[in-house]
Known about the structure:
By secondary structure, the chain is an alpha/beta fold. It is 28% helix and 25% strand. The strands form three sheets. Strands 3, 4, 5, 6, 7, 14 and 15 form a seven-stranded mixed sheet that branches. Strands 10-9-8-11-12-13 form a six-stranded parallel sheet, with helices on both faces. A two-stranded antiparallel sheet has the order 1-2. Helix 3 packs across helix 4 (170-181), helix 3 (140-153) packs across helix 9 (287-297) and helix 6 (216-223) packs parallel to helix 7. The mean pLDDT is 95.
Amino acid sequence: MKQIAIKAPGGLDNLILSDAPDAEAPNPGEITVRLHANSLNFHDYMVAKRENGAADGRIPMADGAGMVTATGDGVTEFSVGDHVVSCFFPDWQDGDDRPSDFARVPGDGIDGYARATVTLPATWFTRAPMGWSHAEAATITTAGLTAWRALVVDGGLKPGDTVAVLGTGGVSIYALQLAKAMGAKVIATSSSNAKLEKLRALGADHVINYRETPEWGAEMQRLTGGRGVDLIVEVGGPATLAQSIAAGRPGAHIALIGILTGVAGDIPTATLMRKQQRLQGLIVGSRKHQQDFVAALDTLEIRPVIDRSFELADLAEAFRYQEGGAHFGKICVNM
C-alpha cells in the first residue's frame, strides 16, 4: 500500500510517500479498514509543520474514513462492507475521564491515517453517516465532532438560541450548519466579504466583516437588540476572546476550541465574571459523542462543505493550500 510518513526533522518538505506492507489480518476485537479519505485540520497542519518535534516515521492525519474489509473474532458492531470513520481520541470511549494531551491521538502521538489500509480495534471507529461519501465522512472526526460538542453536548443548544461563529474554517461552518438545522439563529464573521456572502448562502442570519468592524462584539449586541448571543464558538483564542465575551449575553456559553491567534493573552476576567458567562475549553469529543453525532446527521439535512480535494501523494501541497487561508470549509485527501 501507499502511505505518507514524516521524515525527521519534520516540516512539509519531509512528508514522504512510500510503499508499505498492507495491514495484517485482524485479531479478535479488530477490524481491517480500506481507507479512502482524510480531511485536514489545523492540528494536522501543526504536526506536519513543526520541525524537530515529529517522531521520525510518524504517519500523520487524525481523520480517516473508509470501508471495513475484514473483522476479527468477537466483532459484532461492524460487518464487511460497512462504511466507518475514525475517532480522534480512540481510548476515550465515554464518560468524563477526558484526555488532556495528544499522546494517543492518531497522526500525532501514534500513527494516523495517511495510508491505504489499517487493522485496529473496532472501538477506534464509528459508523459513517448514511449515504455520505468517504470524503464527507472524514470531516466529522475532528471538525464536525468539535462543533457538535461545543453546541450540543456542552452548550445545550436549543431552538431560538443565537450562535456566533468566527471565520470560515471547518468547525465554524459545521457549527453554522448544525445551529441552523436545529432551529437557532447564527451571526457569522469573516474578513472576506466574498466569504461572508457564502456564509449567508449557508443560512447565516447576520454577517460581520471583522476587519471593517473590529468591535464586532458590540455589533452582535446591537444585532440581538442588546441581549447578546447565547453561544459563541471561539476559534481565535487570545486576540478574539475579549470580543466574544462582549458579544455574549449574561450566562452565555463560550466554547474555546482554537488558538489561531496564539496560545496566551489577556482575558477580561472581570467582564466574564460580571456577565456570569461560562468559558469552556474543549478538544473534540469521545466515541459516544461521535456515535450520537452520527445518529443526528442521519436525520439532519446537512452535508459538509468541501472546498477542494487532493491525492495522497500531494498531501504537502494540500497543507500549503490550507496555509494560504483561501479555502472555505474542509480540505480533503482522496486515496
